[in-house]
Design brief:
118 residues, mainly alpha, elongated
Length: 118
């Protein structure tokens, strides 16, 4: 019940610590090290998910402030972090090609604005 009270009062970290403490007490001592390792890995995964959520909020703020290129850079960094290292160079090449095409299209639009078609 104590864990439920902690959770309901918004003390999720304390509730998790108590839950883990109870799990260890109920677990055979030979498995304590493995369970602690599992907990560390779960904590790392949770922190990673929080970091991604924070970065996505930063992207939203940057876009709202008109910093599209900065937002795009963060999006690409997140995507690179999520793909296999052996594929990163290919992804970066694809983005470079997309950027060249986009720049070329923008250049053509500017030319068409300056020189009307005949």
């Amino acid at each position: 019940m104590e864990i439920t009270i902690l959770e309901l009062s918004g003390k999720k970290v304390e509730a998790l610590a108590e839950t883990r403490k109870l799990e260890l007490e109920q677990l055979d001592s030979q498995f304590h090290a493995l369970q602690k390792e599992i907990n560390v890995l779960q904590d790392a995964q949770t922190q990673h998910e929080l970091d991604i959520a924070k970065r996505k909020m930063e992207i939203d703020v940057l876009r709202a402030a008109g910093y599209e290129l900065d937002a795009l850079a963060i999006e690409r960094a997140i995507e690179l972090d999520s793909i296999d290292e052996s594929l990163r160079a290919y992804q970066q090449s694809a983005w470079a090609l997309q950027d060249v095409i986009e720049t070329f299209d923008e250049f053509n639009e500017k030319i068409e604005q300056l020189v009307p078609p005949t």
